[in-house]
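Notes from the 1:1 (GR / supervisor)

We went over the backlog. Supervisor wanted to see one worked example end to end before approving the batch request, so GR pasted a single chain during the call. The sequence is below; no edits were made to it. Supervisor asked that the structure be written out right there so they could see what the output format looks like.
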Amino acid sequence: MRTIHALLLFVAACGSSPDPNEPPCGTSPTDWCAAPPGDPCGQHKNVTSCKADVRCFGMPYLGESVVRCEFDERGFGTNCPTVGCKSPPK
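Structure output shown during the call:
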């Protein structure tokens, strides 16, 4: 019985994993990553509207850069792209 439970957990985990051939969101400068489900800041679809909403923070670019990325107090890139919009960390 234990083996069956372990196998079911393994299959469920494999089915919910992102495609390993796809890079994670935020590693391309043109990405716009989705906010967590239910996050009201997810309604913003670009940096301008996200920045205009004082409740929201930018998601940092995670890709390679020639220089170290720097961010303002709300997480918006000052010398790198911002790749999404989310509520502040808790």
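Supervisor's comment: The chain is about 25% helix and 10% strand.
Batch request approved.
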